[in-house]
Write a structure and sequence with these properties.
This protein is of the alpha/beta class and about 250 residues long. It has one domain: 3-Layer(aba) Sandwich (Rossmann fold). Helices cover about 35% and strands about 20% of the residues. The chain has eight helices and nine strands. Strand 4, helix 3 and strand 5 form a beta-alpha-beta unit. Helix 1 packs parallel to helix 4 and helix 2 runs parallel beside helix 3.
Length: about 250
């Protein structure tokens, strides 16, 4: 490609980008298209085995791993369960979950701030899906990047901890828009914090009017029965073929 110089002569203009640069917009679009393709593969695999796949998201430190431990303790005698845990480094969370007696596999992202469908697909053969009723993905703690990546899940569940402040749904709307259930975690701390469950619920439902909300505490067990009942109903629905696959 050429353009005119100030002297009127044609000047050769390079069409090559400097090494190390990318066209971010196009790269992002292609990345998400590839991700969605693999997510569809995962969704079909889960449907074949009638395994319910739940993607659990939140900010860092909202209590996802503690909730996975509590859920395993409550349901492991009723359902065959397993967990995939995403973190930038270490296997600490998977170790904690395995201590409850269920299978847990750590996915170390090495600095990536979210899980992608190809990461999930690569480790699926580590699980005996034919004998798993409920498979959790504990996503990397982050309310931004994970919202854009479909992991082939049946449902997305987002925790909002009382320690975070009740203004998050409007600040990070995409996460709440793409979620099916919001768990207001660490409710045992409500007497000590300026956090309004009514306010966070109102904001979240203005973003997503179909969003279900359960208030929980993994320490006092508040709401844990309701959470586990929600899971069991979804598992039964998946087994009966009532989960709609898009």
């Amino acid at each position: 490609m050429c353009e005119k110089s100030t002297t009127g002569q044609a000047v050769e203009k390079s069409t090559k980008a400097p090494r190390g640069t990318v066209a971010c917009e196009n790269t992002n679009i292609n990345l998400l298209k590839a991700n969605d393709y693999v997510a569809d593969v995962i969704r079909k695999e889960m449907a074949k085995h009638q395994t319910l796949l739940i993607n659990v998201t939140s900010s860092a430190g909202s209590g996802k791993t503690t909730l996975m431990q509590k859920t395993a303790e409550r349901l492991k005698d009723k359902l065959n369960m397993a967990v995939m845990v995403g973190d930038l480094e270490t296997e600490r969370d998977a170790v904690r979950i395995r201590e409850t007696g269920i299978q847990a596999l750590q996915i170390v992202t090495g600095g990536i701030c979210h899980l992608e469908s190809q990461m999930i697909h690569q480790v699926l053969d580590q699980f005996d899906l034919a004998n798993i009723d409920l498979l959790f993905i504990e996503n990397v703690g982050n309310l931004v990047c994970p919202a854009s990546f479909d992991l082939g899940e049946d449902y997305r569940v987002t925790l909002i901890a009382t320690t975070e402040g009740d203004d998050k749904p409007k600040k990070y709307p995409r996460m709440f828009l793409t979620s099916d259930l919001m768990l207001v975690s660490k409710s045992d701390l409500l007497p000590h914090l300026p956090f309004s469950v009514d306010a966070v619920t109102k904001d979240a439902r203005e973003v997503n009017h179909e969003l279900e909300v359960i208030q929980i505490s993994s320490l006092t067990d508040e709401g844990i029965d309701a959470w586990c009942d929600w899971l069991v109903k979804k598992v039964v629905a998946k087994k009966e073929g009532k989960n709609v696959l898009v």
